[in-house]
């Protein structure tokens, strides 16, 4: 037994390189995802699959296996490859976003999905565009460090690029567009862009947002009315929340400290989005305060490790990319958790690597693979430059 465990340890050290904590966090979240998706898809299975709950479990296992496989492949690729592909990834993502607005599949009154020609497969280009814009921003900020405080050379080009991507996402997904713009602003802050310029950009963006919403409100079938209804429901003085938010609050209340246990929360049959947008509500209900606090801690640890990995970089691009990836995953996670706790209006942001879904899971794993690639590269550089090693 000791020999067998030793062989496993050697295999892990040889093949799963990079930050061990990031690997561990990814596997824990993947395991939690399997448990929660199986527990919370009873209503979907009853409605769509003749109560075959194993269908969604097997589907989740497939996407997690695909995502973790992509994570392994990506973590073996040198960070310089991501730098070289940043511009192409951005162009492809913009083209896909435009196609989605024109010929995308509409779900819940929003054109978010793009179906691959000739295949029964669809995906959300917005998930790709998040990673592409973070890649581009990291490359752009790294290449212009000598002129980081100039409007014409740095701030305006990056702001316009970010604005184009966010405006293409906005009609179908307001929260993703707002979150992405916020993350780029934080990356600019890390890159030492002066605060006054960031505040000026924020003001310009808010004015552009108000104008865009005004224009969208005049287009029949736009989601402005949905956004307005969600905000009014959340901020109303009589606290009339949507039925989904009410069930989410009740699910959390039944969890208390230790939770009702996996599969034992009665509201798993009532929450239509309990496996995706409101999965944190179900985690709090089934695992209690202790379990939900543990999930919060995992995402905080991922952000902390991203910062540690960034501080170990010897060049600007991987540093900014590591920070951007950490922010992308952590900010999205906290938006989902705050919505699940009914502390934010409903936004539709999944819990990274935990919520049911294919595209989001795969691109989250790709992002974590990039983070591990940077960590792996840092360790290789440190090992080759260590005078004791060279001796």
Which key terms come to mind for this protein?
single chain, 391 residues, mainly alpha, globular
How do you describe this structure in short?
By secondary structure, the protein is mainly α. It is built from 15 helices and three strands. It has a domain at 93-240.
Blueprint of the fold:
Blueprint: H1 2-15, H2 20-40, H3 42-48, H4 53-75, H5 79-103, E1 105-107, E2 110-115, E3 122-123, H6 125-143, H7 151-169, H8 174-190, H9 195-216, H10 224-235, H11 243-255, H12 279-311, H13 316-340, H14 359-385, H15 387-390
Antiparallel strand pairs: 1-2, 2-3
Helix pairs in contact: 2-4, 2-12, 4-14, 5-6, 5-7, 6-7, 6-8, 6-13, 6-14, 7-8, 7-9, 8-13, 11-12, 12-13, 13-14
Q: What would your notes on this structure say?
A:
By secondary structure, this protein is mostly helical. The protein has a domain at 93-240. The chain contains 15 helices and three strands. The protein has helices spanning 2-15, 20-40, 42-48, 53-75, 79-103, 125-143, 151-169, 174-190, 195-216, 224-235, 243-255, 279-311, 316-340, 359-385, 387-390; strands at residues 105-107, 110-115, 122-123. A hairpin with a 2-residue loop joins strand 1 (105-107) and strand 2. The longest helix has 33 residues, at 279-311. The two termini are 37 Å apart. The relative contact order is 0.14. The mean pLDDT is 85.
């Amino acid at each position: 037994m000791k020999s067998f465990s030793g062989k496993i340890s050697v295999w892990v050290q040889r093949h799963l390189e990079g930050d061990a904590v990031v690997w561990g966090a990814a596997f824990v979240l993947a395991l939690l995802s399997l448990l929660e998706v199986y527990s919370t898809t009873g209503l979907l299975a009853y409605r769509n699959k003749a109560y075959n709950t194993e269908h969604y479990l097997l589907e989740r296992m497939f996407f997690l296996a695909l995502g973790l496989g992509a994570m392994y492949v990506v973590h073996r690729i040198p960070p310089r490859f991501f730098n070289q592909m940043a511009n192409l990834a951005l162009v492809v993502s913009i083209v896909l976003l435009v196609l989605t607005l024109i010929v995308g599949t509409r779900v819940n009154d929003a054109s978010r999905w793009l179906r691959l020609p000739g295949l029964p497969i669809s995906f959300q280009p917005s998930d790709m565009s998040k990673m592409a814009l973070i890649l581009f921003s990291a490359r752009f900020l790294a290449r212009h460090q000598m002129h980081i405080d100039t409007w014409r050379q740095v701030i305006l080009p990056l702001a316009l690029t970010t604005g184009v991507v966010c405006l293409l996402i906005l009609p179908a997904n307001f929260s993703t567009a707002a979150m992405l713009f916020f993350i780029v602003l934080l990356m600019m802050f890390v890159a030492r862009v002066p605060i006054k310029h960031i505040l000026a950009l924020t003001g310009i963006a808010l004015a552009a947002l108000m104008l865009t919403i005004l224009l969208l409100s005049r287009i029949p079938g736009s989601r402005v009315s949905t956004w307005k209804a969600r905000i009014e429901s959340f901020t109303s003085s009589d606290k009339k929340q949507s039925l989904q938010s009410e069930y989410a609050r009740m699910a959390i209340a039944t969890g208390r400290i230790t939770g009702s246990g996996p599969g034992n929360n009665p509201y798993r049959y009532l929450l239509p989005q309990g496996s995706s947008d409101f999965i944190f509500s179900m985690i709090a209900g089934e695992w209690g305060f202790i379990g939900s606090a543990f999930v919060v801690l995992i995402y905080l640890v991922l952000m902390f490790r991203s910062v540690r990995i960034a501080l170990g970089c010897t060049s600007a691009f991987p540093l900014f990319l590591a920070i951007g990836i950490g922010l992308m995953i952590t900010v999205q996670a906290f938006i989902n958790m705050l919505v699940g706790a009914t502390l934010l209006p409903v936004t539709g942001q999944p819990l990274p690597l935990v919520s049911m879904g294919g595209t989001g899971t795969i691109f989250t794993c790709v992002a974590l693979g990039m983070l591990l690639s940077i960590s792996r590269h840092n360790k290789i550089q440190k090992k080759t430059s260590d005078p004791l090693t060279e001796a």
